[in-house]
Amino acid sequence: MKVEQISVFLENRAGRLSEVTRVLADSGINIRALSLADTSDFGILRLIVTNHEKAKQVLKENGFTVGRTNVVAAEMEDKPGGLHHILNILGQQGVNVEYMYAFVQQSGKNAVLIFRFDRTDQAIEILQDNGVRILSGEEVYNI
């Protein structure tokens, strides 16, 4: 129940992000979710895409430094307090969230949270035991 995420290390300069999206678009790869974190010189672009193997290959062929990480996609009801509920469950069990990002498919329905945990397998078990639906990679890639 893990999702493959690719991370692209980018120089923090105009047009670099556009180069990534051009390479993906030219290869017919659709972005399902993303997060961009920056420092003064570099940024880390985290992506969930429709075809992570092909994305990694074409980005490397175009000179980008690309990594791959397993993350967890959890579905929650899109309502006030939904995120707090999940974070509270994890916090009570001592699971640390290293980073996360989220997207909503349709407002008022469900949101999808992408997590990187310090103890991934334990986090999945805790969430499932508390009735949180964990999405498979295929479900997220095909949203």
TrEMBL record:
CDD domains the UniProt entry points to: ACT_Bt0572_1 (cd04908), ACT_Bt0572_2 (cd04882)
Pfam families hit by this protein: ACT_8 (PF19571)
Coiled-coil region(s): none
Domain ACT intervals: 5-76
InterPro entries: ACT-like_dom_sf, ACT_dom, ACT_dom_pair
PANTHER family: ACETOLACTATE SYNTHASE, SMALL SUBUNIT
Entry protein name: Amino acid-binding protein
Lineage, top ranks: Bacteria, Pseudomonadati, Thermodesulfobacteriota, Desulfovibrionia, Desulfovibrionales
